[in-house]
Amino acid sequence: MTQNLTVDLAYRYLNIGDADAGKSHAYNGSGTFDALEFNDIHSNDIMLAARWKFGCCGGQAPIPVSLK
Hints:
Elements lengths: L4 E16 L2 E3 L6 E3 L2 E16 L16
Antiparallel strand pairs: 1-4, 2-3
């Protein structure tokens, strides 16, 4: 966009399969039960980012100054 402003648009697909939390125990000690089970977990993400670059010198590093 400009020398100091950058805009990014990205897409990401993630597939992590299945998940199972296993057996869970009730808080009051009344027993156990099968917990959550998830099948075919996937995600489609669209990300938009704007970055502003602070600093001087038009993107070049400033000259180091020696402290004697």
